[in-house]
Structure formats: C-alpha cells, structure tokens
Design a protein that fits this description.
It is built from 4 helices and 27 strands. The protein has about 450 residues and is mainly β. It has 4 domains: about 10-110 and about 120-170, chitin-binding protein cbp21 (Coagulation Factor XIII, Chain A, domain 1, Distorted Sandwich); about 220-295, Immunoglobulins (Immunoglobulin-like, Sandwich), CATH 2.60.40; about 310-385, Sandwich (Immunoglobulin-like), CATH 2.60.40; about 390-443, Carbohydrate-binding module superfamily 5/12 (Seminal Fluid Protein  PDC-109 (Domain B), Ribbon). The strands form 7 sheets. Strands 3, 4, 6, 7, 9 and 10 form a 6-stranded mixed sheet that branches. A hairpin with a 2-residue loop joins strand 25 and strand 26. The two termini are about 20 Å apart.
C-alpha cells in the first residue's frame, strides 16, 4: 500500500521544487516583498515584458522562484555570507545560482521612494508561523560596485510578531533615514518561528528627499465572493501606512494591508466599495475607483473555485510532491482529493501532497479537486504529467567524499549505509543527526 503524507516545504530547487526537511523543520514557508518589488520579484515581473531568455540572463533562476530566497536565520551574526546576501547563498539550493549577487550602480532596476515612513508589503505563497521581520539599509558611501556585505548595512526597522501566521502581518511601515539619497539597497529579512531559517529579499531603491505625498489606490478588484462575504484587493501605495475601507459610502474599517475580507453580508445583495490611502502623518488622498459586487444567492449551486497552478515541488525515483494554489468557497474548503492517472489516491487539507511508493522512470498524470465544507465539489485542476527519476545506481555506488559538493536528492553510501541529501551542503558527514543534519538516512 502506498504511504501518503503531507510534508513541509522549506525551499524550491531550480528545476522542480522543494527541499525536504525532517519533522522538526516541517513548514510551508515561501514569500517575497511585493511592494516595493524585491530584486527577485522584479525579475519575475520583467520576464513578462522582456521575455524569458533576456530575463533569465539578467536575473537567473529566481524568475521562477522569487519566494524561495531562503537561508539560515540569525542575521547579521549568522545567515548568508558576505557577497552572497542578495542570493541568500543560492537559496539553500532552491535558486542554485548567484546571479542576484552581481552588483554595479547600474545593474538593477530601481523603485523611487522617499525618506521617512515607507510601507513594505509582503506576498506569501505559503504563510509560515513568524517571529519577526527586520530591515536593513546601505550606509552612506557604500560601495555600489561590489557584492553586498554586512558592514555596508544598517538596521532601520524591526517588526516583532506573535508566532502566528505571516499572513496576519502583510505590511510594515519602516522609516527611511533622512540622510539617504540616490541609489540604495534595502534588505528585508523574514524570520520564521518554528524552523532554523529565514527569507532574504534585497530591494533596489532610488531615494528622494522626504515627501509623504501619496496617490489613490489603484486596481481595486473583487478576488472572491460567497453568499456572505466579499474579498477585495488593490495595488498598495509605497507611502501609505494604512487604508480606509468604504462600503456603500460608509467607512467600515481601517487596515494596514492591501487585502480585505468583508464578512457577515447578506446573500444576493449588491455592495459598492472604494478605498483611500492614509500616510503615516495622516495625509489622505483621493479615494480609489468604485466597484460593485453582488454576493451569491442563498440557494445558488456554488462550487469551490478550481485549484490552479498544479505543479511539482520535488520528484524522486519513488515519490512526487505536488503543490497548487488554494480554492475558495463561502463555507470554506474541507479537503482536496488527489487523482493519479484518473483514480483517487488520497486527500489532504493542505495545498501540498506527497505521493509515495511510485515506480522509477515512469510517467504519472495528476489532477486535484476541491471539496467544500458544504459538500460542493470543484472542477478538476489542470493535468500535471511527471516522470519519476531513475534509481541512480551509479550514485549509490559512489562513496561520500568531503571535497565534493552534494545537491538535494543526491544519494551516497557512508559506512555501509545509504543516505540522501536533504539540501545543498559542502562538507557535512552523512552520519549527522537526521533531525537537524543535511542528510536523511534510507535504512
């Protein structure tokens, strides 16, 4: 019988997906600074306008994984080494290149910001329990033509968290010192609370004199709707510290993120919304565009939204780890059903699933279906065809060597026992503790 389990994901390999950790480090943690855009996320944005080949040459593998710039936490005493801070040492092997560390005064696209309070908004592809965020900025006179190092950075802000999900704290207002101008780099660090890792995002900015002027929020839209709720989102404003939410002309809430769920509404009822941004000193600009949204009727045959973006996160000779974007339903999602080659093989309450006990060098087709708490069933997701890896007998016959760099998924024999590398490492012996070390025993 195949064993089914949902495993933690703590990073994404340059080709397939995640690095798998032991039980202590189980997590679903990924994210990046969306506004102002971090260097890695800017690469993903540019891939849509410049094309894949040019963007890959400029940014490297991060254009597919801006959420996976992950490394050991403890910065600045620990974390990525000097010269590889921007790439987070290659993201524990998830990015697997150091293109982001290349540094000149003209190398990277910059976002205009002002001194004083500035809002940084994160996007989490998989929120994680969080202890804090901390922000650093290049000092006056920093070397713009050399890879980033610790002694070039100054702490400019820290946001402590209560250990709950990162999604409870999307935006942070950080003060940019008044003595900064021109090109600077801001390093945003997200410390997760129940693993030994953090996420590192560098943001290239062009700093102007203090100016708290803000503009109207743009692109207000409905992201989801049910019989008793409406979910809204809009483009965040860099100098806004909070947003006022108006429903039918009446202010109903003030929040510090660019997403809002309006709940306890009446079924089959139309509501109008608009948003206004507020700066840290209380300045209010014109309101956004108005949108009108009608909640679903009580007796409507509401289906969960279809799971999207089903893709592989790790593939071995015996297993396939899948991940997808979550479905939505007014009553909530009860579970996801996993279909392999058209047959139901398991279910999970997470947006991640590992199918074990597969055959090597074999094609499999997967699809996902969402079930709501009210009994509704979504359409099947996109089909995903994967091919399991070969057994890799040549690797199994190799002995571990201290001078060899092993990548996630490599197999070695050490003292008569077989091990698999859990992440990119250099000179760790395979007989280290399985719980914390880079190797997983296969005996």
């Amino acid at each position: 019988m195949n064993r089914k389990k949902v495993i933690g994901l703590l990073g994404i390999t340059s080709i397939l997906g995640v690095t798998i950790y032991g039980k202590t480090d189980t997590a679903f943690a990924h994210g990046y600074v969306e506004s102002p855009p971090a260097r890695g996320y800017q690469g993903q944005l540019d891939s849509k306008s410049l094309g894949w080949d040019l963007s890959f040459k400029l940014y490297g593998n991060v254009i597919t994984n801006p959420q996976s710039l992950e490394g050991p936490k403890g910065f600045p005493t620990a974390g990525p080494v000097d010269g590889h801070i921007a790439s987070a040492n290659g993201g524990l092997g998830q990015i697997n290149d150091f293109t982001l560390d290349e540094q000149t005064s003209k190398r990277w696209k910059k976002t205009d910001v002002h001194t004083g309070p500035t809002t940084f908004t994160w996007h989490y592809t998989a929120p994680h329990k969080t202890s804090k965020w901390h922000y650093y900025m290049t000092k006056n006179g920093w070397n713009q033509n050399a890879p980033l190092s610790r002694d070039e950075l100054q702490l400019i802000g820290e946001v402590k968290h209560d250990g709950s999900s990162a999604s409870n704290n999307l935006s942070h207002t950080i003060n940019i010192p008044k003595d900064r101008s021109g090109y600077n780099i801001i390093l945003a660090v997200w410390d997760v609370s129940d693993t030994t890792n953090a996420f590192y995002n560098v943001i290239d900015v062009n700093v102007n004199d203090s100016n708290t002027s803000i503009s109207s929020p743009t692109h207000l839209q409905c992201k989801n709707v049910g019989k008793d709720y409406i979910s809204l989102s809009w483009n965040s404003q860099i100098n806004a510290s909070k947003y006022n939410i108006y429903r039918d002309g009446i202010k109903i809430q003030t929040i510090n993120s660019n997403k809002y769920d309006d709940k306890d509404l009446s079924p089959g009822t139309e509501y109008s919304y608009k948003i206004e941004a507020v700066s840290a000193n209380g300045e209010i600009f014109d309101k956004s565009n108005v949108i009108k949204v009608r909640t679903l009727y009580q007796d409507s045959k509401e289906k969960p939204t279809t799971p999207t973006n089903l893709h592989p996160m790790n593939i071995t000779s015996k297993s396939a780890t899948l991940i997808w974007e979550p479905s939505q339903h007014s009553s909530g999602i009860q579970m996801y059903e996993i279909y392999r080659n058209g047959s139901l093989v398991g279910n999970t309450t997470e947006e991640c699933y590992t199918d074990d006990g597969l055959s090597s060098s074999t094609n499999y087709t997967y699809a996902i279906k969402a079930l709501s708490n009210g009994g509704g069933t979504s359409e099947l997701s996109n089909n995903l065809i994967i091919t399991t890896k070969s057994m890799g007998t040549s690797e199994l016959n190799d002995s571990w060597r201290r001078d060899k760099v092993y990548l996630q998924g490599d197999h070695v024999i050490f003292k008569g026992k077989e091990y698999e590398a859990k992440w990119w490492n250099t000179n760790h012996q395979p007989n280290q503790s399985e719980q914390y070390g880079p190797w997983k025993s296969l005996f």
